[in-house]
């Protein structure tokens, strides 16, 4: 199936030149189920990670380089969640959450970020190796959902007025999620340095109002084509340009070869300290909730 026909596990970029706006829209389904498989997370944690993966897909699809990586990490203290990490590399998504089961048992039905993350910060890192660009911004985890935190990231770290809308639901045992990111880039997608960007710019206000009309059902509906949804939103604009679609899938860099390579970089003395009585070094991948037992003897061959 050509990627343009994909209605789920896909991200699509859009620009509206006359309004100085760009956008990304993403729909996720089986990719979320794949990331969550093996973890056995409680419903609230699954929902949180589904939301985080949707934002990761939106932000990751802003990267220009195929080898570019986007990492989102919640650093927290005193909340339900101790650590949350998600990343994006070439359309591959992965993520995991460490959390406190006792605190989770007392959680309210729809906890805001403060209850989930306590005194938490969200670190967002864009890494583009070819251009030797690495940029990290950190914002407090405040607001009703991670979309709020992403909006403040763009407002505070990049001075880009942005709108983030997210929707996720589990139906018949499967996750369906969608997200929309709209941004005001008066200098265009490639952009020169922004000398002044006003949050109340009339062109941006117009785009923001349109973006707010999108419904959760539309964002997460796996049968609605992203092009159709963008057409519903922007059909009155003079010109709307679509960028190429990016298929999304679950992807992790762990493999026995990779793990052997990592262990191989330790000195023999350090390796000897890691080995258990049966001659194995066990390395686990938290993203996949999988343990790789590596035989020390195999390493030496
Ligand atoms: Zn892995």
Describe the structure.
Strands 1, 2, 8, 9, 10 and 11 form a 6-stranded antiparallel β-sheet that branches. The chain has 11 helices and 14 strands. The protein is of the alpha+beta class. The structure holds zinc ion. The site of zinc ion has 5 residues, from loops.
Uncertain segments of ≥5 residues (pLDDT<50)?
191-195
On the 0-100 scale, what is the average pLDDT? Answer: 91
The hetero molecules present are: zinc ion
Order of helices and strands: EEHHEEEHHEEHEEHHHEEEHHEEH
Radius of gyration: 21 Å
Structural class: alpha+beta
Cα shape:
globular
**Whole-Å distance between the termini?**
44 Å
Number of E-state strands: 14
Helix % is 25-40%
Oligomeric composition of the shown chains: single chain
Main pleated sheet: 6 strands, antiparallel
What fraction of residues sit in β-strands? 25-35%
Helix count, DSSP H or I runs of 4 or more residues: 11
Question: What key phrases describe this protein's structure?
Answer:
single chain, 301 residues, alpha+beta, six-stranded antiparallel beta sheet, six-stranded mixed beta sheet, 11 helices, 14 strands, 31% helix, binds zinc ion
What would a concise description of this structure say?
By secondary structure, this protein is α+β, with helices and mostly antiparallel strands. Helix content is 31%, strand content 31%. It is globular and about 70 Å long.
Topology:
Blueprint (H helix, E strand, L loop, with lengths): L9 E7 L4 E8 L1 H7 L6 H18 L8 E7 L5 E9 L2 E8 L1 H5 L7 H5 L3 E8 L4 E8 L5 H12 L4 E10 L2 E11 L17 H11 L3 H5 L5 H9 L6 E2 L3 E2 L1 E2 L5 H9 L3 H7 L5 E6 L4 E6 H5 L1
Parallel strand pairs: 5-12
Antiparallel strand pairs: 1-2, 1-10, 1-11, 2-9, 3-4, 3-6, 4-5, 6-7, 8-9, 13-14
The structure holds zinc ion (ZN).
């Amino acid at each position: 199936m050509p990627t343009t026909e994909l209605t789920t596990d896909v991200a699509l970029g859009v620009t509206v030149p006359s309004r100085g706006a760009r956008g990304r829209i993403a729909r996720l389904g089986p990719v979320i189920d794949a990331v969550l498989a093996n973890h056995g997370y409680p419903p609230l944690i699954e929902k949180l990670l589904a939301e985080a993966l949707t934002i990761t897909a939106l932000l990751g699809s802003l990267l220009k380089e195929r080898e570019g990586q986007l990492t989102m990490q919640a650093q927290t203290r005193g909340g339900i969640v101790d650590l949350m990490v998600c990343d994006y590399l070439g359309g591959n998504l992965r993520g995991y959450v460490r959390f406190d089961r006792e605190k989770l048992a007392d959680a309210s039905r729809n906890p805001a970020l403060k209850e989930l993350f306590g005194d938490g910060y969200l670190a967002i890192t864009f890494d583009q190796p070819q251009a030797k660009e690495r940029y990290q911004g950190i914002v407090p985890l405040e607001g009703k959902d991670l979309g709020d935190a992403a909006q403040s990231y763009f407002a505070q770290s990049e001075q880009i007025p942005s709108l983030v809308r997210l929707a996720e639901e589990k139906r018949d045992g499967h996750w369906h999620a969608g997200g929309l990111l709209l941004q005001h880039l008066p200098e265009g997608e490639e952009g020169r340095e922004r000398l002044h960007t006003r949050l109340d710019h009339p062109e941006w206000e117009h785009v923001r109002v349109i973006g707010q009309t999108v419904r959760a059902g539309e964002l997460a509906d796996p049968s609605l084509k992203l092009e159709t949804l963008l057409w519903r939103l922007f059909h009155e604009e003079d010109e709307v340009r679509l960028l190429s679609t990016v298929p999304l899938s679950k992807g992790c860099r762990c493999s026995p070869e990779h793990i052997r390579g990592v262990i191989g970089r330790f000195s023999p003395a350090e390796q000897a300290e890691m080995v258990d009585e049966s001659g194995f070094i066990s390395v686990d991948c938290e993203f996949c909730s999988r343990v790789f037992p590596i035989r020390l003897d195999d390493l030496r061959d």
